[in-house]
Amino acid sequence: MAKHNVESEVTGNVWKVLLEAGATVEAGDVIIILESMKMEIPVEATVAGTLVEVLVAPEEQVEEDQVLAVIEN
Amino acid sequence: MLKKILIANRGAIARRIVRACSELKIQSVVVYSPADIQAPYIAEATEAYPLTGNASKDSYLDQDQIMAIAHKCGADGIHPGYGFMSENADFAQRVIDEGLIFIGPSPKWLKQMGDKVSARAMMSKLGMPVFPGSELITHIAEAEAFAQREGFPLVVKPAGGGGGMGMQVVHEKAQLAPALSQAKAIASKAFAASGVYLERWIEAPRHIEFQIMADQQGNAIHLFERECSVQRRHQKLIEESPAPGIDSQAILQQAQASAEICAKLGYDNLGTVETLFTPMGEVGFLEMNTRIQVEHGVTEEVTGLDLVQLQITLAAGGSLPAQVKCEGFAIEARLYAEDPETQFPSTGTLTVFRPPKLFAVRVETGYQEGQAVSQYYDPMLAKIIAKGTTRAQAIGRLLIALKAFEVQGVRTNASLLIQVLQDPAFLRGEVDTHIIQRIQNAKNAGNS
Lengths: 73, 448
What we know:
heterodimer, A: 73 residues, mainly beta, CATH 2.40.50.100, four-stranded antiparallel β-sheet, 0% helix, B: 448 residues, alpha+beta, Rossmann fold, Dna Ligase, domain 1, D-amino Acid Aminotransferase, Chain A, domain 1, 3 domains
């Protein structure tokens, strides 16, 4: 079993968390939507597997490269 | 005449309005959020007052804070700029009710043009060409009936929207219901109204808009067109005037028709009639923007008129300029703080920020070296506008200016803008709203 971190590409706010821990994901599935500079930025699963952790909640502030979620496969 | 204007905005437009006020010998008052505390216009304005929060709702959208400052400093007018509260009819009415002049059209126009469905109907009745569109959709059956009649592709649009937010293209019946509910969700979050409607989707159109200027006595004129097809995600990147590679007679006719319709309406102050042109040359009204546009500088360069000053004098009951001529060619590029590949926004501190100082090149920016680019507001760093006696000369000057503009500390879209300005189709004047996608696809194909 390998763990893969899903990181933020931007500094911004969490707008929506679409998937919860335990969900099965395919690469490209949108887990979280961030908001930065008036843009909505989808955060996608980097690999297929099980979403084991979602580390942020709506309204939370995130930084570039911050780990937002963890996928295990 | 107005004596003191409060500017309810930030960035390049706040600074632009400060300059217009100073030339008109009017005092200017700026407001700023904590994130904008290093902005250059704070020192350039006559007075500056801090706002409490960074989020738009706690700063540039906070009517109570802004009105309290306006009263405290004794302003007699409020300029809303673009974005934020510029098209908010309730705010405009409140400004008037509290005894100040709102520098923009009467609140009724903000309201009527703000509702895209009623605007379409109103304009169409007066002879404005429109593409087929539905009424507000209250039930999926209405959407399906419209799709049955018009066929696909269609576009789902929020009635209260602007700037392409919440728009979704639908290619088949199965996509219709999810697209409608998603558009409704976005509309209710971002706009005052949650209504959505459908329109025929034009594949690869040109986006051409007409600058209108009207006084309070029912006179309206046009200041020609701006070609704004170079867009990504429905956001404009490059704008120019005159529009290249299109029947200029047809464009002029549409400009005149737009001004005549605005005169019939009794519209006042500045406005922009946005239209789409199909590859076959059919034209359809998109929406009317009831404010100064980001790209107003393009029109200023070809007409020699100061649109912001005219907005102010017209709001105070002034008259229209007598003769308006379009001379030469002007083109503008928007420099955004974003990754040119992913197009994701890029925040940081501008460790280097040196706008070029070149002949026939104008830079509008609300930033200076050392300033932070925050996540709270839109990513536009600067507008660079070049003028020439030919289109090629204007493009050449803009290209040199973009290459000379030194920015460090955030990523910018300069390389993408430079690619567009060197693209053979763009140089031939063959533009449509898909040009960025084509350029990027070609580049990716070349890399692999």
